[in-house]
Write a structure and sequence with these properties.
268 residues; alpha+beta; Aminopeptidase; 2 domains; eleven-stranded mixed sheet; Acyl_CoA_acyltransferase; acyltransferase activity, transferring groups other than amino-acyl groups
């Protein structure tokens, strides 16, 4: 699989995952208003119900003249998107145009992938080595309420019962697999695997502060890889901040970086 085809796969997968996240969100009681638009070769991910997950993809020097119209589309909805810029798209002209519209790079994300078929040299085979004192389990949908309780504990989530009743059918399923790590019988970390056909997205990893450094996230990472492999998922992907423990953990078990995007946001 070439880097170009991996990037195309990544774009399609993240669109599917963004659409799903808009449906499952517990941060807003509004129904999903996620949709795509296309302007001059640009892809607009628009979520009118959630202001923080609007994005503009595909910006490069050849279509930079379409950026004002795309930004105007978001602005007409009261939104300001994040602009994800591929490495090859970062030219003097592109940067100057984005700066003129108030956009500047704020951080970057490394996108990683692993081929679970063990047949593609671009992505090596997974290597698993669970910490001996960490137990990981998949939360069945029959116990989905316990996953909400853990989210409240881990991230301080607030969610009223009515909203949870409307959204919980999307959690702890075959499409959105929820994993919990235990140390000495105590639930202390969680993570998820989103499945779209033969592809998977690893995300939402969080650990209680008092259990950091105990190997929980490494165990959750490896458990998700093994689960993906057991289901015949061909490729799993994730994104991490560069030069972090998360990136090192992913690469240690066989993920390979396929792309590093700079993230541009409006700076007033």
């Amino acid at each position: 699989m070439t880097v170009l085809s991996m990037n195309d796969t990544l774009k399609n997968l993240e669109i599917s995952y963004s659409r799903f996240n808009a449906q499952r969100t517990l941060s807003s009681s509004s129904e999903s208003r996620f949709y795509l638009d296309h302007i001059g070769g640009l892809t607009l991910l628009i979520d009118e119900a959630r202001s923080y997950d609007n994005r503009l993809l595909g910006v490069c020097e050849s279509n930079i003249d379409a950026v004002p119209a795309a930004l105007q589309k978001f602005s007409s909805l009261g939104l300001r998107p994040r602009i994800d810029l591929e490495p090859e798209a970062l030219t003097t002209k592109t940067a100057k145009t984005l700066n003129q519209h108030g956009y500047f790079p704020t951080t970057s994300l490394v996108f990683l992938a692993m081929n679970n078929t063990h047949q593609d040299p671009f992505c090596p085979s997974p290597k698993t080595d669970f910490p001996s004192d960490v137990r990981v389990e998949i939360v069945p949908h029959a116990r989905v309420d316990t996953f909400l309780d853990l989210l409240k504990k881990l991230v301080g989530l607030t969610c009223d019962e009515e909203l949870w009743l409307k959204r919980k059918h999307l959690y702890c399923t075959q499409q959105f697999v929820c994993f919990v790590a235990y140390v000495d019988g105590e639930p202390c970390a969680c993570a998820t695997l989103f499945v779209e056909g033969a592809l998977g997205v690893l995300a939402n990893a969080v650990t209680l502060d008092s259990y950091r450094g105990r190997g929980c996230q490494r165990a959750l990472l490896e458990a998700r890889i093994e689960h993906a492999h057991s289901r015949g998922i061909q490729c799993t992907m994730s994104d991490v901040l560069p030069n972090t423990t998360s990136q090192r953990n992913c690469q240690r078990v066989g993920f390979m970086p396929i792309n590093t995007r700079s993230l541009w946001e409006y700076v007033a």
